[in-house]
Structure formats: structure tokens, C-alpha cells
Specification:
332 residues; eight-stranded mixed β-sheet; 9 helices
């Protein structure tokens, strides 16, 4: 199955469930490593087995305690580098600070670029991530970056929705127009765009959304976005679609962070379901909101690791995605 040197899988504390699922799919055990904290908060890492001249993959997602998880990843990379690993690949399903990818106002930091510099400086040779908030983040690196897509899994899920043939794919903002247009083209359905705005005459004026493109009346509305954090955008978009006469509303989002989301409020939204991937742990979120469904991405991660190790094309993994191809959709 594998050529040359062996795969070494390491995992931080951010998402152990995903790491174990990937290891199980690959048939490769996780190399024991014990990230621990000293009493003053400093992180210490001990790798229990040799990684000399091995192909090392470190699985660590940028979710929950983002700063601790990022620092943990950097220390793991540095430890493997000084232990003479042949190649070090950071597998980061949810890239940290991805929303800070441009200077949108004076004196604003481009923190995604800073994260890229730190990963390379620590000794990383390759990055595997998923659904970057902005594709230009790949250009922040001088090392190979593979940006995987959850779209194949979303397409498969949409085709399980009753009446999807008469559906409309909706983006809650202009930034997601390209994403929803691509999905709509693959499905052969229409797409719609929502514009979020605030009355600039009043600082305390509530935000509102207006449907700019598309007609959702009496249609199955499928809202697609790349990330949910507080849930405010989803709340406004769902109510706008409901007011515009959508028959049913389904929500599909790549990264379900829910950092400051009111799960009770999400439960009461006029939506049928809220589908996310498990780039971040979803067990606690599902217990708080019965509408949340989680799609397992361990299959995509495992196959990309196998192809990287064997020197095979990762793009071929998505070449025939409209027909299912190599990707199986599993609900957790």
C-alpha cells in the first residue's frame, strides 16, 4: 500500500476523534506523543517513537483554543524537524486565522500570512488543509499547499434532499458567490445571492439582508457557506429566506466552529437541518442542537495522506466527484 519509508501519524489535542478515524482508515497507528502544559501555560511535547527519515503527518485543526492548538502544532513540527524527519506535513482541516487574509482597513494585520511564516519557520515542508476561507492564502506559502474541498460531500448530501431538483443554492454574502455558482452548475439548478447591510445613518441600527439575485419562493432553499462562528449571518439569512417564501431551508457549512453561537436560537430557526463537516469536533454541538448533522471528512484526509506519501495526484481525488468517485459520504 505504501512505498519506501513509512508513514508516521501524529496528532495534537485539537481533534483526537478525527485523528483516530484517519489512522483507522489508513491502517496506520498514531505515533504516541504527549503534548502537555506546564503550570505557567507553556506547552511541552514528547514524541515516544523515532521519526528519523520518516514521512511525518501531523493532524491538528485550528478550532476551539486556536492559539494553544497553533502553538502545539508549531512545537510538534519543530520537534520532528530536530528529530531528523524526512518530510513533515501539517494536516490542518480548519486553517487558523484564515479570515484575516487581507488588509481591509488601516493598520490591520494579515495574520494568515503570519501563520504561514511561522509554519514554514518551524520546519513544515507541506500543508494539507480544507476549504480555505480565501484561496489566496495558498500564495502566502513558499511550500506546497493542498486545499481539499468538501463540495463533493455536499453535492452527495444535497442529492439526498427531497425535491433537490427544484432547489436553489443560496450564498449569504457576495464572497460566497463563486462557491454556490459552482455547486449550482454541477447540480443543474439556480443560485441566489443575499446582501447583508446596515443603515449607516445610525450606529445602533440592526443589520438586515436583502435578496439580490434569484427567486426562492416555493423552492427548496439550500444555504451554503464556508464557516459558522457566532451564527448571526445564518440567523439573518434563514429568516430572510423564510420571509421570501422558501418552501424549506437546508443549511450546509464547511467549518462548524460555533464559538459564540447561541445553540438554543439556532434550534428555533426556520430550517430543516444544519449540516457541517467534522473539521472541528461536533459531539457537544449536536447534543445542544438537534438540527446539526455532521459529515465525516476522515476519508478525504486519509486518501490525501496516502496519495501524498505515494507521490500520486491529489487533484484526481476530485476529478470525478459528481459521480461519487473515491469519496464516500458518512454521517456521524
Amino acid at each position: 500500500m505504501y512505498h519506501g519509508n513509512s508513514i508516521r501519524l501524529l496528532a495534537g489535542n485539537s481533534h483526537p476523534e478525527l485523528a483516530h478515524s484517519v489512522a483507522e482508515r489508513l491502517g496506520v497507528p498514531l505515533t504516541p506523543c504527549m503534548p502537555q502544559k506546564f503550570s505557567n501555560g507553556e506547552i511541552n511535547v514528547k514524541i515516544a517513537e523515532s521519526v528519523r527519515e520518516e514521512d511525518v503527518f501531523i493532524i491538528q485543526s485550528g478550532c476551539s483554543d486556536v492559539n494553544d492548538n497553533l502553538m502545539e502544532l508549531l512545537i510538534l513540527i519543530s520537534a520532528c524537524k530536530t528529530a531528523s524527519a524526512r518530510r513533515i506535513t501539517a494536516v490542518i482541516p480548519c486553517f487558523p486565522y484564515a479570515r484575516m487574509d487581507k488588509k481591509d482597513k488601516s493598520r490591520a494585520p494579515i495574520t494568515a500570512k503570519l501563520v504561514a511564516n511561522m509554519l514554514v519557520c518551524a520546519g513544515c515542508d507541506h500543508i494539507i488543509t480544507m476549504d480555505l476561507h480565501a484561496s489566496q492564502i495558498q500564495g502566502f506559502f513558499d511550500i506546497p499547499v493542498d486545499n481539499l474541498f468538501s463540495e463533493p460531500l455536499m453535492i452527495t448530501y444535497i442529492k439526498r434532499i427531497d425535491g433537490w431538483q427544484d432547489s436553489i443554492i443560496v450564498s449569504p454574502d457576495a464572497g460566497g458567490a463563486k462557491r454556490v455558482a459552482a455547486i449550482a452548475d454541477k447540480l443543474g439548478v439556480e443560485f441566489a445571492l443575499i446582501h447583508r447591510q446596515r443603515d449607516r445613518k445610525s450606529k445602533n441600527a440592526p443589520e438586515r439582508m436583502e435578496l439580490l439575485v434569484g427567486d426562492v419562493r416555493d423552492k427548496v432553499a439550500i444555504l451554503v457557506d464556508d464557516m459558522i462562528d457566532t451564527g448571526s449571518t445564518l440567523t439573518l439569512a434563514a429568516r430572510t429566506l423564510h420571509d421570501k417564501g422558501a418552501k424549506t431551508i437546508h443549511v450546509l457549512i464547511s467549518h462548524g466552529l460555533f464559538a459564540e453561537a447561541d445553540m438554543t436560537a439556532l434550534e428555533q430557526l426556520p430550517i430543516e437541518e444544519l449540516v457541517v463537516t467534522n473539521t472541528a469536533p461536533q459531539k457537544e454541538h449536536k447534543e445542544k442542537c438537534s438540527k446539526i448533522r455532521a459529515i465525516d471528512i476522515s476519508g478525504i484526509i486519509a486518501e490525501s495522506i496516502r496519495r501524498t506519501h505515494n507521490g500520486e495526484s491529489i487533484s484526481l481525488l476530485f476529478g470525478d466527484w459528481t459521480g461519487g468517485g473515491h469519496l464516500d459520504m458518512v454521517l456521524l
